[in-house]
Write a structure and sequence with these properties.
globular, 3-stranded mixed beta sheet, 6-stranded mixed beta sheet, 9 strands, 10 helices
Length: about 300
């Protein structure tokens, strides 16, 4: 009997684990920074501005024994227009197929913000890891009070304090995720890093530069579409279009004598060359697409159609 048990345990030890680990939470709590740290690559753009992430983006971590499919999602918010409705749909879809849910908060936000979404998280049957991020910006007593508050809101969640930016607690988090993953064959090829095509990362990198270099409403009125992506052995040729909603916004994006657009193009090209590891020939144009954020047809064209 003991021998049989030993054989059984040995087989269990060799089982492959795989699953979907979905990252959700309110805007600006550090979800994208955490995603990039866990994957070990810059999959999601991350800036200091809220609503940087607009899509649900997968980053895949592979080991011989496991495959972790992480999903970064937009920050949860109450929608004011159709683009934000699509962003919320991406976040809510992450509650449907998670094997493990990472709910990210931080040491400054109101724990009861977006209570409707939080109630859905509380009803989930899969393991929920509540991650209190940015603990380097807090003290021990304040952190203790935050933990106690979250214990009351999500009593079934495991609470882990982390600092994604400083990589504090991320190794422990990865270890715990691996323990919670179900036995399963891999869902994707073992050499696959993400579910998104190259064109997606081109548009995201250009949009990241716009978020960094323009103020107020401009970055939120912008969408980037890649019209041409041609790669040969030595170079990549890219034509991209920055869409805005107003003629006045087009003028701001271009800037006086094209200086602003040239800066965005130059910094985007540098980032793209680092991302793809090849010289990039990049041409960027600006066009007006009136009220695209409120047009279902245009949002579908830009890929904001959660399945």
């Amino acid at each position: 009997m003991l021998y049989g048990q030993c054989v059984f345990l040995s087989k269990r030890k060799q089982m492959h684990k795989a699953g979907f680990v979905n990252i959700v939470g309110n805007p600006n709590v550090g979800k994208s920074t955490l995603m990039n740290q866990l994957v070990g690559e810059k999959i999601s753009i991350a800036t200091f501005k809220a609503q940087t992430t607009r899509h649900r983006i997968m980053g895949i971590v592979n080991t011989p024994e496991a495959q972790i499919v992480f999903s970064d999602t937009p920050g949860v918010l109450k929608p004011n227009y159709k683009l934000q409705e699509s962003m919320l749909a991406f976040s809510e879809s992450a509650l449907q197929d998670a094997d493990v849910l990472l709910y990210v908060t931080d040491v400054v936000e109101n724990p009861e913000k977006n209570q409707d979404f939080l109630d859905k998280v509380a009803r989930m049957s899969v393991p929920v890891l509540l991650l209190i991020n940015k603990i380097d910006q807090s003290d021990q007593k304040t952190l203790g009070d935050i933990v106690e508050k979250w214990h009351g809101l999500l009593p079934n969640a495991e609470i882990l304090p982390i600092s994604a930016k400083n990589k504090f607690g991320t190794e422990l988090l990865l270890k715990r995720i691996l323990e919670l993953l179900p036995d399963s064959p891999p869902y994707f090829d073992k050499d696959q890093l993400t579910d998104k095509p190259a064109r997606f990362f081109v548009s995201e990198i250009i949009r990241e530069k716009i978020l960094l270099y323009y103020d107020k409403e401009i970055p939120y009125s912008v969408e980037v579409s890649v019209e041409r992506f041609k790669e040969d052995e030595k170079h990549i040729h890219i034509n991209a279009v920055i869409y805005v909603e107003r003629d006045s916004q087009k003028g701001i994006i271009i800037g006086h004598q094209g200086v602003a657009l040239k800066k965005v193009s130059t910094e985007s090209r540098k980032a793209l060359e680092k991302f793809f590891g090849k010289p990039i020939y990049l041409e960027v144009f600006v066009k007006v697409d009136k009220d695209w954020r409120s047009s279902e047809r245009e949002l579908n064209h830009f890929g904001y159609n959660p399945e």
